[in-house]
Amino acid sequence: xxxxxxxxxxxxxxFDTDDGAVHAVDGLGYTLGAGExxxxxxxxxxxxxxxxxxxxxxxxxxxxxxxxxLFEGANVLNVSPRQLRRIRGxxxxxxxxxxxxxxxxxxxxxxxxxxxxxxxxxxxxxxxRKRTVELLELVRIPAAERRVDEYPHQLSGGMRQRxxxxxxxxxxxxxxxxxxxxxxxxxxIQAGILxxxxxxxxxxxxxxxxxxxxxxxxxxxxxxxxxxxxxxxAEEAPVRELFANPQHPYTIGxxxxxxxxxxxxGNGRERLQEIPGRVPSLSEPLDHCAxxxxxxxxDDLTRSSVPPLERVGTDHxxxxxxxxxxWSR
Amino acid sequence: xxxxxxxxxxxNDLKKHFQVGSSLSPRGGTVYAxxxxxxxIGPGExxxxxxxxxxxxxxxANCVVRLLNPTxxxxxLKGRDITQLSRRRLRPLRREMHIVFQDPYxxxxxxxxxxxxxxxxxxxxxxxRGRELDRHVEELFDKVxxxxxxxxxxxxxxxGGQRQRVGLARALxxxxxxxxxxxxxxxxxxSVQAAILNLLQDLQRDMGFSCLFITHDLATVExxxxxxxxxxxxxIVELATREELFTHPKHxxxxxxxxxxxxxxxxxxxxxxxxxLEGDIPSPMAPPSGCPxxxxxxxxxxxxxxxxxxxxALRDVGRGHYVACHLVEPGGAAxxxxxxxxxxx
Amino acid sequence: MSYVEVAPLSPAARRRRILRRRFxxxxxxxxxxxxxxxxxxxxxFAPLIAPYDYKETDFNALLAHPSxxxxxxxxxxxxxxxxxxxFGARASMEAGVVATLLALAVAIPVGLIxxxxxxxxxxxxxRLTDALLAFPFLILAVGLAAILGPSLRNAxxxxxxxxxxxxxxxxxxxxxxxxxxxxxxxxxxxxASDFTILRRHILPNMMSTIxxxxxxxxxxxxxxxATLSFLGLGVQPPATSWGxxxxxxxxxxxxxxxxxxYPGVAIVLATLSINLFGDGLRxxxxxxxxx
Lengths: 329, 345, 291
What we know:
The structure holds 3 protein chains of 3 kinds.
Chain A: E1 6-17, E2 20-32, E3 37-41, H1 48-55, E4 63-71, E5 74-75, H2 81-87, E6 92-95, H3 99-102, H4 109-121, H5 125-138, H6 144-147, H7 157-169, E7 175-179, H8 187-204, E8 207-212, H9 215-221, E9 224-229, E10 232-238, H10 239-244, H11 249-257, H12 300-304, E11 309-313, E12 316-319
Parallel strand pairs in A: 3-8, 3-9, 6-7, 7-8
Antiparallel strand pairs in A: 1-2, 1-4, 4-5, 9-10, 10-12, 11-12
Helix pairs in contact in A: 4-5, 5-7
Chain B: E1 9-20, E2 29-41, E3 46-50, H1 57-64, E4 72-77, E5 80-81, H2 87-93, E6 97-100, H3 114-124, H4 130-143, H5 160-172, E7 178-182, H6 190-207, E8 210-215, H7 218-224, E9 227-232, E10 235-241, H8 242-247, H9 252-260, H10 266-271, H11 300-303, H12 306-309, E11 315-316, E12 322-323
Parallel strand pairs in B: 3-8, 3-9, 6-7, 7-8
Antiparallel strand pairs in B: 1-2, 1-4, 4-5, 9-10, 10-12, 11-12
Helix pairs in contact in B: 3-4, 3-5, 4-5, 5-6
Chain C: H1 13-24, H2 27-44, H3 46-49, H4 81-117, H5 121-134, H6 137-148, H7 152-178, H8 182-190, H9 194-230, H10 242-249, H11 258-285
């Protein structure tokens, strides 16, 4: 078995806020192989973004990060700031959700990409410009030669996201972390970005951690999926397996809650599955199953202890005392 | 349910143009946000208005509720022309139409308790006062699935889903004939969306109001709505019953939209050949001449030069199905861009 | 119909608790508040705190150095400086607070209407505000003094008028932003009258900003009063204020600088403390600050 490109284990993040502590991530672990697309799925507050930001040290000072994230032999959660800066943008890069605010409005698009190139690859300004145009063409921005000198506000949302992606792949990173890259975009534009990401993965061999709440996006592009709930991993499986054979009640609930195109035969419109209750407060680390008070399978066992990760198939893991394919037992 | 004659809402050739820039700034321009929209909604009917950014769907909603004043066209609510009415004359009629907003965080006054917020329309339209008002509010909370004790809480103490329920309760408090829902679930988590959509469906069945449901998500429209209108750059490009639109989409944009939608099923999703539109959505300040979709339409080589010169009219092609496309024949035959969508048809 | 569960929460008192905690994390603001409250207490209870009446003179101790009888010493006429400073707090604090309140009484309605209605009202208000801004309050005060005679009351009037433009701007800005909020649009769509919207939706939501701004205006007006009194346009002797004391201290600057130092330090401490408190308050109330 080859060593994974990224090996995260027991990652925990705690924020110290006005209202006390928030245990945003609790003992998260996963691996990422070279060239693999891992979908990190969950709703708001589940910790998916926080866990990714922690890998590059992008969390505010109120956060305390523990655990291990092994990348090329080193624990990136522990490296020196200098080493971290070397990794950011070059080995591991990040694409943020909001293309409107992630680009500096007072610099041209070309300048921003060149900046990354010159810093990490030490290119001359002429070389950087040439490579920048190549990158813009790589992300399929038409008229790249002209666009290089345009400012962010002159580009549409979809274009800006492509520029962000160009910046992220500029130095040919091994891992690209994309945090809800298409959430702020229109459906038809989203389709283009997803195609682009798939294309880049094939051409450049970049591994991608795709963070999203949209299961459709995951179904489209991911190889493997990790479902997160309340800071913990609930289920993990190869993508087809997860959708065909979900075992965790949360995953099942989520899949049934989404209206799907093409399934409304006749005039009987079924109700969508509702998951009763709300996400538990994360002010204390929970000593029982995080999903217990919303779960139809809950019993004394789940309310008193944390379910361990169990293998329920090849590469299929569930953190549940009563895994099964139906919503209730 | 009282039998009402005639449509609840009639919008005729609605146009809303914004002037950008002032007399001081040299670069002015017109945003053609809504450019000739006509639709009707019957009693108890839910019409879905679908579009992406720049389509003008939210502007249509704002015009219908008269938060914006239309540039031209007419809006009739239960037969009465409300397009030009002054605010004072409009007030009693506002009882009949209410709006639910997208953002559960900014649509509620942070300084009022949610009970007060829900009771405000009742108070405003003099439905009830004092204890009777409180009783109404309690009933409304119950109807939207919130425990009545919550009415003493402030908005920031509730979750996003709860806030949207409050917004719904407020909108339905005076039993309007028309509810306008502007992307009511887009800002919510998936599991919460399901609850709110179910709730909306239940309430509509119980109370019988008509609804203009605005969204960018086609799957939601298929789930909830009776009829669907697809908008692009300020115009309606296709209008049909749910059944018709999803089994026989005729306009190339509708087909592209359906094709681009992602579905949570990896097998299906990866097997589909997706239509990817080239280019960006044109700016509403500079809509293309002729057919607004021609700059991105895969069939443009066939429709040119007519599509460059002449704007396609929204025509009836049978079975309540209207399409605005030069390549769709009067009988309804339309070019297929992709295989039937997701197992239907 | 399934009920939505709610985790137990305490009511709005929880927000106060959070705000209190955030405030306590800012020692400068806490100190500021404490000192400011100290000054207020001194002003209110002046007769009880001061060992002597401010008009009282001690012929045996003229320009005396600080001693056990006279904590800060005495001035050229035998007044106890400590008592003077204590009583001086009254006029100065009164001027600061009352003038600010006066200004708010004018600025809030005007700013609200300008920001909410816009139309033709807004440019008119803007020009009037600009016109007012063109008059430094000093000129206003001189003018008023000339017409009505110099007094604390007229000084307060001048100071209040001088503070109006800035407060109008703040109020107008808030109203402008708030009218775009969704809940305001919902109220309009509901058919609410403008008055109701202003009263229930816009005004309550701008209060934090206004309070902070008021807190920062008071020190400015305290200094303003001191300036006016120093120039003879405000409080008139034998009534006293810190400004009056500074005026009297001019002649003795080399021989007995303490005549100027004590009231001067009082002004500095009073204004600085209120400023620090106001700054901290602004941070605490800003939803964007983390802690």
